[in-house]
């Protein structure tokens, strides 16, 4: 068994959080929706939205039959609302190309709108039980420290999959546990700013710890401040449209008191360009 696998499996068995998508019978569609929602969004915020989403649209066909506006509205305040639009498009593709069943094949998953290397493999592994490396930000950090001896991982790349693959046991079930455990360890223990090394199951073999915790360049992309940003303006515009849906809102009535009129107009233009809003006859509305 690879070096980090055995301690990860043992640690995960004692410490894994009870999360909806880890429960038996959760299903591929639920897994896919959860992975869309979990991108750049904390688990605690995702869970109630996920439950409401799956209650409203328990299958891809159910979502595909709804208007895109319904998906954007249901997304509410999860952030990065293009994910809602991509998830709706993916549901349409699943209905039309795969008879309404979330595909198992990684290449078929990658061909769906909004799905990248991580999400495709997460669905194949956690929903269907296949053996693939699953690499998210937390996994990359664990590998950087425990295996490569670096304080922070470099930029994401295809090599991440090969590095994780080298750590997976040959047993399919154990490989799935190692994938989940590496992500869980990075989320709970091997955190970016305050790692709890004394509680880490990999402490005895961690290359970074053995080297004396050397600093390395932190090349993580920094997110711009939300307050006063174009993202905040986009969110304000979308809230107006969600609250009004299915009615349209006159352009002059879309956050008219926003402190920067040019920023507001830029937000509207960007939402239209992203397909999150449509304009006609001097009014703005969610995509139909």
Which descriptors apply to this entry?
single chain; 288 residues; mainly alpha; Endonuclease III, domain 1; 2 domains; three-stranded antiparallel β-sheet; 3 strands; globular; DNA repair; iron-sulfur; purine-specific mismatch base pair DNA N-glycosylase activity
Helix content: 40-55%
Q: End-to-end distance, in Å?
A: 52 Å
The oligomeric state of the chains shown is: single chain
What does the overall shape look like? globular
CATH homologous superfamily annotation of the largest domain: Hypothetical protein, domain 2
Strand order of the largest sheet: 1-3-2
CATH class category label of the largest domain: Mainly Alpha
Order of helices and strands: HHHHHHHHHHHHHEHEE
Estimate the mean pLDDT confidence: 94
Structure commentary:
The chain has 288 residues and is mainly α. It folds into two domains: 1-222, Hypothetical protein, domain 2 (Endonuclease III, domain 1), CATH 1.10.340.30; 230-285. It has 14 helices and three strands. It has helices at 5-15, 28-38, 43-56, 60-64, 68-75, 82-97, 106-110, 117-127, 137-146, 159-165, 172-188, 207-210, 230-244, 261-273; strands at 249-250, 278-280, 283-285. A three-stranded antiparallel β-sheet has the order 1-3-2. Helix 2 (28-38) packs across helix 3 (43-56). The protein starts with a helix and ends with a strand. The mean pLDDT is 94. Its EC number is 3.2.2.31.
What's a quick, concise take on this entry?
The chain is an all-alpha fold and 288 residues long.
């Amino acid at each position: 068994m690879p070096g980090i696998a055995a301690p990860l499996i043992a640690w995960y068995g004692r410490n894994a959080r009870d999360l909806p998508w880890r429960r038996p019978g959760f299903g591929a569609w639920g897994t896919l929706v959860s992975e869309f929602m979990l991108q750049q969004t904390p688990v605690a915020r995702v869970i109630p939205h996920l439950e409401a989403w799956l209650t409203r649209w328990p299958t891809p066909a159910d979502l595909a039959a709804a208007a895109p506006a319904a998906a954007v509205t249901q997304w509410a305040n999860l952030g990065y609302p293009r994910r809602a639009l991509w998830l709706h498009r993916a549901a349409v593709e699943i209905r039309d190309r795969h008879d309404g069943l979330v595909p198992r094949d990684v290449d078929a998953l990658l061909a769906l709108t909004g799905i990248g290397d991580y999400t495709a493999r997460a669905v194949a592994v956690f929903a269907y039980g296949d053996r693939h490396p699953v690499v998210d930000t937390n996994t990359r950090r664990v590998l950087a420290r425990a295996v490569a001896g670096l304080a922070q991982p470099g930029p994401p790349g295809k090599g991440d999959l090969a590095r994780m693959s080298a750590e997976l046991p040959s047993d399919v079930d154990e490989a799935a546990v190692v994938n989940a455990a590496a992500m869980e360890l990075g989320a709970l223990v091997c955190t970016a700013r305050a790692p709890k090394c004394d509680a880490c199951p990999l402490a005895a073999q961690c290359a970074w710890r053995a080297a004396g915790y050397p600093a390395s360049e932190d090349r993580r992309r920094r997110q711009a401040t939300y307050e006063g940003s174009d993202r905040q303006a986009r969110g304000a515009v979308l809230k107006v449209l969600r609250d009004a849906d299915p009615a349209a809102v006159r352009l002059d009535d879309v956050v008219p008191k926003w402190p920067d009129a040019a920023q507001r107009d830029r937000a509207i233009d960007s939402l239209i360009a992203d397909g999150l809003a449509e304009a006609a006859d001097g009014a703005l509305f969610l995509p139909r």
